[in-house]
Amino acid sequence: MQTEVVDHPLLADTMAVVRDRDTDGERFAAAVDRAATLLLTAASARLPTRLEEVATPLGPANCRRLAEQPVLVPVLRAGLGLLPAARALFPAAPVAFVGLRRDEATAEPHWYLDALPERLADRHVIVLEPMLATGGTMVQVLGRLAALGALQITLVALICAPAGLAQLERGAASLGIELRVVVGAADPVLDDRNFIFPGLGDAGDRLFGAL
């Protein structure tokens, strides 16, 4: 497993807005979208390309195009906050949704939606999940993706914690998948509710409101 904490002044400034408790919902969503654009740009740097001749107004030019569109997998509901940026960068990419709900008492994830295709062999999958806390949810998602044949997976997250990274590393090794984690920040610990500390709070609630 490879982990990259993206170091960029624009991302650092945007993450400050995302973390700030006084950032309202509209500005929070806009900042998450900006952060996602920067993170996805970094995450896509290694995607395979192919050569294609393009006719410019003045003549032919040899250009590089993506060899294949990745499959975008947002984890509901908070992962939806990263999806607009992903769709803007990969407008032709297929999107497959998964939904898991974390039990607040046990921190164990429970599936409530699996809209993945029947086969993902030879496809690069980009998973969108703002927070990597315990890693329990992501290990479940990785296991399902691996069962469908996906062996090259990139996770894009805003913030991670050491416990989540350790869990993912063990999971990726046992599943035999090539996993890359691209994040905007790495925070030191989880609190007693298994929230990333200092983190940014509940990403889903801040994006979509608390009921």
Nutshell version of this structure?
Helix 1 (9-19) runs antiparallel to helix 2.
Task: Describe the structure in your own words.
This protein is of the alpha/beta class and 211 residues long. The protein has a single domain (2-208), classed as Rossmann fold (3-Layer(aba) Sandwich), CATH 3.40.50.2020. Helices cover 33% and strands 30% of the residues. The protein is built from six helices and twelve strands. It has helices at residues 9-19, 25-43, 83-89, 136-147, 162-175, 203-208, and strands at 2-5, 49-55, 60-66, 71-76, 98-102, 109-114, 124-128, 131-132, 152-160, 178-186, 189-190, 196-197. Strands 1, 4, 5, 6, 7, 8, 9 and 10 form an eight-stranded mixed sheet that branches. A two-stranded antiparallel ribbon has the order 2-3. The radius of gyration is 17 Å and the shape is globular. It starts with a strand and ends with a helix. The model has no long low-confidence stretch (mean pLDDT 94).
